[in-house]
Amino acid sequence: MALKTIFHLDTTQRWAHLASNLDNYLGAEPDADIEVLVNGGGITVYFDPQVTEFIAAHPQVKFFACHNSLQQRHLDERQLPATVKVVPVGVVKIAQAEADGYGYIKP
């Protein structure tokens, strides 16, 4: 059975750590079901070209953005990388994932 994990990022300063954690995790568990939820101050990482490249290089990972965080910062969700899905409330997405048996990691 594949491991199920949701990673949570709420600050841009932790992006490099999260990216490293993801690569290490996938190296050990290549069939894992991984989701990444970004909210709060971390939401602006999705507008960084290097992050867009990272996302494109990891098609097996599902990336999510919090609508509330985008709205609070006046960011246009249409400018997100195409594979990033917007959820209404980031913390609810985390709670739903945990209820569905996902482990929680916040680097």
Automatic annotation (TrEMBL):
Pfam families: DsrE
UniProt cross-references to Gene3D superfamilies, sorted A to Z: DsrEFH-like
InterPro entries attached to this UniProt entry: DsrEFH-like, Sulphur_relay_DsrE/F-like
Source taxon at top rank: Bacteria
Coiled-coil segments: none
Name under which the protein is recorded: Sulfur reduction protein DsrE
Organism: Lacticaseibacillus rhamnosus LRHMDP3
